[in-house]
Amino acid sequence: MVVPHEMTGRMILRGVVGCPVCKREYPITDGEVRFGETAGAAEAAEAAGMADVIWALLGLTGPGGLVVLVGSATRLAGALAARMGGVHFVGLNASAGIEISPELSLLRHPDRIPLRHAVARGVVLGAETAAAPWIGEGVRVLLNGQRLVAVAETMAAPGLVRLAAGRGLWVGQKRG
User: What stretches of 19-167 adopt beta strand conformation (E)?
Assistant: First the structure.
């Protein structure tokens, strides 16, 4: 069994390979199957690397405030909290296995971010949420001049000025 998370053409760049005999799962990173590593350990390492990039793209230099993580982006909460002390994270529609912590509150809603307008210092959209209605909701809760990062190469985001796109990420700043 193969579960692709990111592909270029027919080549799988990121994902998981499962063995039907031993029932183990092995990660695919940078197009390479990594036998001998468990999928969980590789996923944690990948999240830490992704957190470094997202932390830089959010451009938050001081503590305080909220950062909203939507969908699969909630798996980055622990790694981001380690880099962004004093920031509280709100995870929306988190995957199974994500648990609350002093730095992370969890919410669930089918089609909106249940927060007031202009409250978040940053928003991060997972790949599956880098589309309507989540883009509009991310813009709605974002403070003027702050950034939204999405796990997507291209995205139409009214209300945001695109700052950069590439390597599977898109970042925009809310017009102020």
Answer: 25-29, 32-33, 66-70, 88-92, 104-107, 120-125, 142-150, 160-166
Q: What is the pLDDT of residues 71-86, one digit of tens each?
A: 999 999 988 998 888 9
* Bridge partners (DSSP) listed for residue 25: 18
Which CATH topology does 45-174 take? Rossmann fold (3.40.50)
Place of tokens 């997972």: 126
- Using the CB atoms, write b or e for 99-118: b if 16+ within 10 Å: eeeebbebeeeeeebebeee
What stretch of H or E contains 84?
none
Looking at per-residue pLDDT, the higher value among 22 and 125 belongs to 125
| Angle in degrees, CA 164, 154, 129, rounded to 5 | 110
**Cα-flanking dihedrals φ and ψ of residue 155, to 5°?**
-165, 140
The domain limits of the chain are 2-37, 45-174
